[in-house]
Design goal:
Chain A: This is Trafficking protein particle complex subunit. The structure holds 2 protein chains of 2 kinds. Chain A contains 3 helices and 5 strands. By secondary structure, chain A is α+β, with helices and mostly antiparallel strands. In chain A, strand 1 and strand 2 form a beta hairpin. Classes of the chains: A alpha+beta, B alpha+beta.
Chain lengths: 137, 165
């Protein structure tokens, strides 16, 4: 049970927060993350267009080495988490992160909406929560 | 429940498309949602774009999650495995499965979201149906044409029907 990274994408497809939690250093630079976020945003929209039945956007992507979970809020902000392939109940964790985001980012008077998140309290609380999840059996 | 099937060749072209949705229902809906209806050729291009982007995305992200330092031997093994990076994605109403062969053929299938992993089924379609009835057919000269082979069509439909039940 490991959560290896967290991304937050605003409603325009811009990456506003990215953090890796695995002990291994990430190989991608910030520009590549921006491109990936933009790509995902586009694919997420197209996936509703190519649906054989009326559908929402992508919720889970399965790959051979990891799983990517996406939670879209009513306002269009997307929370994305990558975990190992066996991870379950990730939706719950994403909603919890959304709660932390509401408390420490949206209620921060110095934060400009849709801009990159630079809030110390958010960092601390996300890290504490993810650590708790990763260390639980 | 299997909704539809796309087969793309290595030149990014959709060479086969099939749809198993209820046609009657479609006709009823066609009037109300005509503005939203797309030709399957257009849809196939979008599907190709989606799986191509997701394949690259998964490839990039999996290097982040895995062990970063690799020996040359590992890299060689990775080359074989890397095309199998992206397996499927799921929304609240459907699931899209993806399978790529070593020769660059891409099999895409849309099902209902509860279906299990279909990699083996797609591989079986490639091995038992595509290779048998398209590759081994002496009349199929070019690999860039839409497959109009009746035997392939019937065998594929039979196979999918048997899997759906």
């Amino acid at each position: 049970m490991t959560i290896s990274s967290l991304m937050i994408i605003n409603k325009a497809g811009g990456l506003i927060y990215q953090k890796g939690f695995a002990s291994t250093p990430s190989k991608l630079d910030s520009n590549e993350y921006l491109v990936l976020a933009g790509t995902f945003h586009g694919v997420h929209t197209i996936s509703t267009r190519i649906a054989p039945v009326p559908s929402s956007g992508i919720e889970v992507i399965e790959a051979s080495t990891f799983k990517l979970h996406c939670f879209q809020t009513q306002t269009g902000t997307k929370f994305i988490m990558t975990t190992d392939p066996e991870h379950s109940r990730v939706e719950l964790h994403l909603k919890k992160i959304y709660e932390i985001y509401s408390d420490y980012v949206m209620k921060n008077p110095f934060y400009t909406p849709e801009m990159p998140i630079r809030c110390e309290l958010f960092d601390v609380n996300v890290l504490r929560y993810i650590k708790g999840v990763n260390e639980s059996p | 429940m299997i909704y539809n099937f796309y087969l793309f060749n290595r030149h990014c072209k959709c060479i086969y498309y099939a749809n198993w949705q209820n046609d009657k229902e479609d006709e009823d809906n066609a009037l109300s949602s005509k503005g939203n209806e797309m030709k399957w050729e257009e849809e196939a291009k979008l599907v190709y774009g989606v799986v191509y982007s997701l394949r690259n995305l998964c490839r990039k992200l999996s290097t982040v999650n895995g062990v970063p330092e690799k020996t040359d031997k590992d890299k060689e093994e990775d080359k074989e495995n890397e095309d199998r990076g992206f397996l499927s994605y799921k929304t609240n109403a459907y699931k899209l499965h993806y399978y790529e062969t070593a020769s660059g053929l891409k099999f895409v299938v849309c099902t209902d979201p509860r279906s299990p992993n279909l990699q083996d089924m797609l591989h079986q379609i490639y091995r038992d149906i595509y290779v048998e009835y398209v590759v081994k057919n002496p009349l199929c000269m070019s690999d860039n044409d839409y497959i109009n082979n009746e035997l392939f069509k019937t065998k594929l439909h039979e196979f999918i029907k048997s899997q759906s039940n």
